[in-house]
What does this fold into?
Amino acid sequence: MVNVAIAGGTGGVGRTILEVLQATSQHQAFVLSRQASQHLPNTITMNYDDTDRIADILERKNIHTTKRFVPSGYAIPYPQRALEFLPQLNDYFEAIYELRRSGLEWTVFHNGIFLDYFGTPALTSYLKPNVFVIDMEHKVAAIPGDGNTPVTFTYTFDLARFIVASLDLEKWDEESRVIGDEKTFNEFVALAEEARGSKFQVFYDDVEKLQRSEITELPGHKALYKQIPKESFQWFTSIFERFTADGTSHIARAGSLNERFPDIKPLSVKNMLDRYWKNA
Ligand SMILES: NC(=O)c1ccc[n+]([C@@H]2O[C@H](COP(=O)([O-])OP(=O)(O)OC[C@H]3O[C@@H](n4cnc5c(N)ncnc54)[C@H](OP(=O)(O)O)[C@@H]3O)[C@@H](O)[C@H]2O)c1
It folds into this structure.
């Protein structure tokens, strides 16, 4: 048994990892949070600027983080050139750089796009709501590129099951790949139409349009502008849509954790659609 600290265990992905860890393993979970919490047990309040105190707390609680570390990622293998248009990635690349120098054992998880965005609200998810490419509720899609590039889709709870399983691996590779399912957006829309029993209205946004930070507005986007202004939303989403059109969001299956843990059967796109959208 090891003690695992989940920094940001109050958030979307973190809370999912916490729940799966508590339900399926012998390992002891602690949550690191900038705020004190009454409802989450074992929460340690953190000031991330105070590194001496962090080290002291982690050592006193005998947290395995002092030997093994997983930086926040849970997405795609960001190319270094992405820094030119997504400077926020600087912290991510810095973290990887520091980990390489640290002597810690570490791994970063790559899982593609979260399947949750296409199954909520019926599908349980702690992610903040988002409408990405396919607006399931309103039966409209705005597909990046020609829609024929495969994309990896993974449900957060399946990702968490692979993460928890990998705690028992003797050795971690620098990259841990998790594949829920692989579909092109054209295939995804065809399955969605089948599940919903009618045709979707489908638009195509070519790469030039995405490079101008523009995407076709879907009906479900409007509700999101309360959290993030339209212009910022379009800019951010167009970048991630480009990562689907150019194949960056297709995670290599060879050597993935799926091969090491064949008993974990992730939710497929079709099963999700049939379960949560047929007769919806
Ligand atoms: N592949 C995909 O489709 C996809 C989609 C969404 C997210 N992701 C990735 O998944 C990861 C987690 O995303 P999420 O949506 O779960 O995140 P989130 O809910 O926004 O945040 C997670 C937690 O991080 C902590 N936090 C936030 N800012 C912080 C800061 N500056 N310093 C220290 N702690 C901070 C907060 O905890 P406290 O307030 O309790 O400290 C927060 O609850 C990210 O790397 C994100 O890029 C991937």
About this structure: Residues 8, 10-14, 33-35, 48, 72-75, 113-114, 127 surround NAP (CB under 6 Å). Residues 1-66 form one domain.
